[in-house]
Amino acid sequence: MELTGHREHGADAVDADVSFIPLSDPDITSAELSAVEALLCSPRISNGPITDAFEKAFAAYLGREYAVAVPSGTIGLLLALKALGIGPGQEVIASPYSFRETVHAISLVGARAVFADVDYWSGALAPSKIEERITANTRAIVGGNPNGHPAPWSELRAIAQRHQLPLLEDSTEAIGSRYKGELVGRFGDIAVFDFAQPLALTCGEGGMVVTDDIDVAVGLRRHRAHRLDERSSVVVSSAAPHQAGMSDLAAALGLAQLKRLDEILERRQLAEQLYNAHMQSFEGIKPPYVGPDVTEVNWFLYLVHLGTRFTRSSRDAIVDDLRIEQVEAAAYCHPLHLQRHYFELGYRHGDFLVTEKIADRALALPFHTHLTDDQVAFIVETMKDASINIGAGAAIY
Q1: Is there a contact between 318 and 397 (Cβ–Cβ < 8 Å)?
Q2: How far apart are CA 356 and CA 360, in angstroms?
Q3: pLDDT digit string (tens) for 199-224?
Q4: Residues 300/348, Cβ–Cβ less than 8 Å
Q5: In a 3-state reduction of DSSP, which class is residue 339?
Q6: Which of 188, 296, 327, 392 fits 322 for a cystine, CB–CB 3.0-4.6 Å?
Q7: pLDDT tens digit sequence for 322-337
Q8: For residues 319 and 325, what is the distance between their CA atoms, to the nearest angstrom?
Q9: CA 302 to CA 272: how far, in whole Å?
Q10: pTM, 2 dp
């Protein structure tokens, strides 16, 4: 089976090495090109109506009351924390296991990220590990949907309610996934999305924050940027905004992608099926896991969990071997608590053993709508050969 590409601007527009298989490749059609062209030909390419239209459409897609467009998921979480009044001397519970470093926003507002370990199978925050990390200084819990797999939101919500804490949802990797039949982005008091590559919906750079609380929405907009029609308003002096709005160019691209989102996700699922078929002959890896309350997973990347005989260095060697064969691959996560900023806050190797165990062996492979069956077969065979070179892996269980 072969997936036919949508990139109608493709070979003539870019002089690229056709043998190289990138980690991600956005699904862009004439619809997106026309949307951007129409904006560029209009008399207003910033501070216009397109971003408002994208916000309204995104809120409607999720069934939430308010959506606020931002430049990135990190800025989105930063503004969400500021809207909740969270700052220096306070703590926020978060996961150290993430490809996208959205939780840096906690430090950017002056608060302390207090990490809790994750579930071995899903990679999401483990509810049993959260309550022991809550203190008198805790002001919020940030739960994520790692690599598109929904967190156990019912349990997280119960913990948040028991301790009277706001629950924030990091859905920067998970658009389109469903938990108990509901789309991700509907479970947090505030939810944050990101639209950079390699997300299914991409507009280069950008993000969206959604909520049903009008006070939070007003706070988000106040901290984001002032509108042109507010220049003479007393609102202008009430907060120093971050000038963190989304450009209309990004919004035009995002709005066109949102209209095609179901189609894009369906095509990504076809790529997933190709991988699953070829991976069946690869012994010693953990199969893709879908939790019992998870209705649908739309993966961020195609993630392979290598067997326990593999080390982080052997995983990195496989990445290098794939690169030599013109296949772009990557480690999914370098645990946040082992990065220098958090190391200087006192975190050390061994603090979160489950996170470290799965992060050391998680290998992200190319995942996008333009992959063909032959390409996926080549990627998997190349990975198998590379694993043989460094030693066979045992089952990860």
Answers
A1: no
A2: 6
A3: 999 998 999 999 999 999 999 999 99
A4: no
A5: coil
A6: 327
A7: 999 999 999 999 999 9
A8: 10
A9: 7
A10: 0.91
